[in-house]
């Protein structure tokens, strides 16, 4: 009997611990998240997609802004997955590189702007929760995540662009 | 070529459907966008209906030619992209209306959790649904026409209208946000909480910690994790919905919280667990950007190989940037 009771207690204990975690996530994260996402969503609606498109187009001319500012605007304003539609402003040879840059940015951006990819927050939240648990602040980590993210998408854009152009010219030669 | 009407039913725990659809001269391609070649369900749909099947990762076809798209989306992006375009969508994963494009996922265009046995020939005389394409353009055109007809009104009226417009935007932004929280964030939180509860209370956590802490607590270890995740034959499988990256992120977070992994490894870890981001989504992402089929054919391997190079670089950069943090 004691054994069974112990077993039952252990079993329900798993879910009590899970419930406590859930409560922590809901009360700790969701309130700020809801207000922040609402704010950013309103800004996006007020600014309007056309204005963003017009501005973004200007950023496609050189490789630096093409793989930093341009994907940033795409992911910030259109969010995952509609951000990739900005590829339409680019020549064919740049499209894979732009996609690579934009998609690689959908997680680094969530540290500061969770609206951009609210369905996949836990890449960031999972790790940042650990930092919070240690009693450390996460804002600096979020800022650095964003900065490193921008550097990485620039490199990815350049590398993928090179590979794409190489493969395209090889195909033409065939 | 003779085409047959087929019936697609949802599988166990699936959602949507049943769809009774038939290919025609124009729409006769089964687009298999599942990451690992052509899956059996696409094959079966093609055999029964008489349509031809195309591997969406190797090549792409114009949306107008797609009879049905077969995806294996965990609930973020792909499951909504095709319904948004008005393409019938079969999801092999049992996912309902979820993701940022959840509003486009409807029973009459989408069916999920589909297994081979759920694909059958339609009964004689069953009504075939019309292609849902081109329904969304009409109201838009009407709206812009209406806007053009508006006469100039007085200052007060205009002021009132613009204030009303802004308030409306705030309100619908709030609505959108709450929808997002309910559809995406809360379900994942529930899943994560269950995982953490079981792992931390049952003692499995300690075993996992012993295995991953030494790997994730050093630069070399993180680089190995990163290279494995970036392998071109693994990355498209690890990608969907970023579920793997998210679960591993939660694991590492728990270990960081317990002190098994030093906090300064948080930043490089964020990149090490995620070199596969979007690798499952390359053809879809490129077709959203209106890329030609030739570009998609080249783009998929280009992105996958690029990750092998840029993945480890990202970990090193993040490692350098974590100096002075914590």
Would you give an account of this structure?
- The complex is a heterodimer of chains A (174) and B (326).
- Chain A starts with a helix and ends with a helix.
- Chain A has 174 residues and is an all-alpha fold.
- Chain A has helices at 2-47, 49-57, 63-66, 69-78, 95-104, 122-133, 139-173.
- Chain A has 7 helices and no strands.
- In chain A, α2 (49-57) runs antiparallel to α4 (69-78) and α4 packs across α5 (95-104).
- Helices cover 72% and strands 0% of the residues of chain A.
- In chain B, the strands form 2 sheets. Chain B has a 5-stranded parallel beta sheet, with helices on both faces.
- Chain B contains 11 helices and 8 strands.
- Chain B is globular.
- In chain B, 51% of the residues lie in helices and 9% in strands.
- Chain A: Pfam families: EII-GUT (PF03608).
- Chain A: The chain crosses the membrane at residues 20-47, 67-86, 142-159.
- Chain A: InterPro entries: PTS_IID_sorb.
- Chain A: This is PTS glucitol/sorbitol transporter subunit IIC.
């Amino acid at each position: 009997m004691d054994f069974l009771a112990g077993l039952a207690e252990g079993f329900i204990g798993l879910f009590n611990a899970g419930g406590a975690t859930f409560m922590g996530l809901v009360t700790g994260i969701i309130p700020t998240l809801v207000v922040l996402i609402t704010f950013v969503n309103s800004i996006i609606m007020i600014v309007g997609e056309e204005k963003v498109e017009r501005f973004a187009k200007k950023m496609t001319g050189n490789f630096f802004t093409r793989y930093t500012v341009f994907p940033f605007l795409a992911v910030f304003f259109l969010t995952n997955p509609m951000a990739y539609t900005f590829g339409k402003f680019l020549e064919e040879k740049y499209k894979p590189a732009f996609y690579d840059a934009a998609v690689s940015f959908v997680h680094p951006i969530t540290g500061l702007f969770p609206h951009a990819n609210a369905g996949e927050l836990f890449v960031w939240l999972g790790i940042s929760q650990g930092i919070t648990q240690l009693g450390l602040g996460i804002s600096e980590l979020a800022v650095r995540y964003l900065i490193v993210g921008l550097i990485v998408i620039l490199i990815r854009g350049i590398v993928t662009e090179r590979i794409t152009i190489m493969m395209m010219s090889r195909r033409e030669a065939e | 070529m003779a085409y047959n009407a087929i019936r697609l039913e949802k599988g166990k725990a699936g959602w949507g459907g049943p769809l009774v659809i038939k290919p025609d001269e124009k729409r006769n391609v089964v687009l298999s966008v599942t990451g690992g070649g052509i899956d059996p369900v696409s094959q079966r749909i093609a055999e029964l209906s008489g349509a031809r099947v195309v591997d969406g990762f190797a090549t792409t076809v114009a949306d107008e030619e797609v009879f049905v798209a077969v995806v294996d989306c965990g609930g973020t992006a792909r499951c909504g992209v095709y319904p948004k375009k008005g393409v019938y969508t079969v999801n092999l994963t049992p996912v309902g209306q979820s993701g940022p494009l959840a509003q486009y996922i409807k029973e009459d265009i989408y069916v999920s959790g589909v297994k081979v046995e759920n694909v059958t020939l339609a009964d004689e005389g069953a009504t075939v649904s019309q292609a849902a394409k081109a329904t969304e353009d009409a109201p838009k055109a009407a709206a812009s026409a209406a806007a053009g007809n508006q006469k100039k009104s007085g200052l007060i009226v205009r002021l009132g209208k613009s204030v009303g417009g802004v308030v409306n935007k705030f309100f619908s932004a709030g609505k959108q946000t709450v929808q997002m929280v309910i559809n995406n964030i809360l379900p994942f939180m529930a899943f994560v909480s269950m995982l953490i509860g079981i792992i931390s209370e049952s003692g499995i956590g300690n075993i996992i910690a012993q295995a991953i802490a030494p790997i994730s607590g050093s630069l070399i270890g993180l680089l190995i994790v990163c290279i494995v995740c970036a392998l071109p034959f693994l990355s498209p499988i690890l990608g969907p919905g970023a579920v793997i990256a998210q679960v591993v992120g939660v694991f590492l977070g728990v270990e960081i919280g317990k002190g098994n992994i030093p906090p300064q490894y948080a930043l490089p870890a964020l990149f090490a667990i995620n070199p596969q981001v979007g690798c499952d989504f390359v053809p879809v992402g490129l077709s959203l950007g209106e890329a030609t089929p030739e570009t998609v054919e080249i783009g998929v391997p280009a992105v996958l190989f690029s990750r092998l190079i840029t993945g480890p670089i990202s970990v090193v950069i993040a490692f350098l940037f974590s100096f002075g943090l914590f």
